[in-house]
Amino acid sequence: LDALSASYRDLMGHLMTRIPEIARDLGLVDGGYRVVANCGEGAGQSVFHIHFHVLGGRPMRWPPG
Q: pLDDT tens track of the chain, all 65 residues?
């Protein structure tokens, strides 16, 4: 996320509109889901490219982690 600039606007918009489609395909919409993007090693990022985790199918607690 730290490396994003305005030049990534179209890509990020595409990814954000795909997330609810994926959640629907996985049957997560009715029960709710969480979207996570880790940024940096200290936040748990271990794959250093932009990606999102779509979490659902169980109750989510707050605060996470």
A: 998 999 999 999 999 999 999 999 999 999 999 999 999 999 889 989 999 999 999 999 998 86
Q: How far is CA 43 from the centre of its chain?
A: 14
Active site residues: 51
Cα 21–22–24 angle (5° rounding)?
Answer: 65
Beta strand 53-56 with 33-36 is antiparallel
Residue 47 CA, chain-centre distance (Å), reads 13
- The beta-strand segments (E) located in the chain are 33-36, 53-56
pTM score, two decimals?
0.83
35 bridge partner residues: 54
Taking the alpha carbons at both ends of the chain, their separation in whole angstroms is 20
